[in-house]
Amino acid sequence: MEAKSNLASSFSIESPRLGEPFLLTPGPLTTAYSVKQKMLCDWGSWDADFRDLTAQMRSELLSLIGDTKDEFDCVPMQGSGTFAVEAMLWSFLPHNSKTLVLSNGAYGSRIVQTLARIGRNHVVIDKGDYMPPRGNEVAAALEADPTITHVVVVHCETSSGILNPIKEIADATYSAGRKLLIDSMSAFGAIPLDMTEIRCEAFVSSANKCIEGVPGFGFIIARKSELRTSKGNCNSLSLDVHDQWVNMENTGQWRFTPPTHVVAAFVEALRLHRKEGGVAGRGARYTRNRDVMVEGMRTLGFETLLKDRWLSPIIVTFFNPADPAFEFGQFYQLMKESGFIIYPGKLTVADSFRVGCIGQMDEHVMRRVVAAAADALKQMGVRDACPPQSALSERAKLAA
Ligand SMILES: *Cc1c(COP(=O)(O)O)cnc(C)c1O
Description:
The protein is α/β, with parallel strands linked by helices. It has two domains: 22-29 and 278-399, Alpha-Beta Complex (Aspartate Aminotransferase, domain 1); 34-274, Type I PLP-dependent aspartate aminotransferase-like (Major domain) (Aspartate Aminotransferase, domain 2), CATH 3.40.640. It is 40% helix and 15% strand. It contains 14 helices and 14 strands. The protein has helices at 6-10, 33-37, 48-62, 81-92, 106-118, 135-144, 166-175, 224-228, 241-251, 260-275, 278-299, 328-337, 363-380, 389-396; strands spanning 22-23, 72-78, 98-103, 121-126, 150-154, 156-157, 162-163, 179-183, 202-206, 217-223, 315-319, 340-341, 343-344, 352-356. A seven-stranded mixed beta sheet has the order 2-10-9-8-5-3-4, sandwiched between helices. A three-stranded antiparallel beta sheet has the order 11-14-13, with no helix packed on it. A two-stranded parallel ribbon has the order 1-12. The longest helix is centred in the last third of the chain and has 22 residues, at 278-299. The protein starts with 5 loop residues before the first helix and ends with a helix.
């Protein structure tokens, strides 16, 4: 009963393996061989060839956001994804702003922590580990406090894998006349973020998530109107998006040493993304990865933390089995010996682990992941991977 997805089956995995395991993790992730190969060349950061590469990258990223792309610009920022999130928040939240943070996991908490560090006034709706923030809650909070100027949300909260309902949150924000900023780190490139449908002032993602590049920089896609008025907001020199933008517009260069090899690899990753059918093609492969993997894991008795409606095609959280013979450290090691690096859980409510669906992997790889899990359970003497009853009743609280 395996329906064939045309997009997924026409895409060939470009031999990512050099004998190393597949990374079932949400970035760094398994990259194509041709992406790695592009890093074998040195570039002068001031040279016209590298400036062209930067310009090409910025324009290709903008081509992924739909017809309103002329109203936006793309500003790359050195560092890991968190640097780009901090740069976005610091640059687009004015000194006198007040932000409503919608938090439901580790990356939402990190945004709260960042706002505290940079001294921006904020309030938080904390939904715990995995409940989605809803449009009506946002509307009510904004109505109750007219001094709130901005809302910030994480698109796919990678700590649980939940896909937050970004459209209803954007609608609630703009109906109330406020502005939205999005951390779309682990979603952009695989989940549609069309600026004609979902309104926001800016969002951020990075090189090593769904575009399947290697780590080294993030990028902020922002409304030009917002970029123009952001001058003077950011107290950090290196994280100032306005300065980086103005400099890049004027000279074509990054302000400080760019991760040249990473940019070259990323442009190749963008070529593969386009070849696969862009956001739709990439999203289809990841969805297939998730469906095959989740179905197989459920056959073994594993259960997902989230109900199907909230499962992202990015990463899936599974409860640890109740069987006392199960021990995560050993499970991890056995999976690694089979060639798969999985990811520990990040929940406070129940013991769990995570399996990523992103990177150079297809459904055939995912079937091998399930077979490896079955084998690991057998070696550990776990008969059935079903979770404890307490975990399932916790999940029952999750909104339908
Ligand atoms: C990966 C990720 C980040 C950035 O993490 P870094 O470790 O700094 O790259 C931020 N937000 C989300 C939702 C992420 O998945």
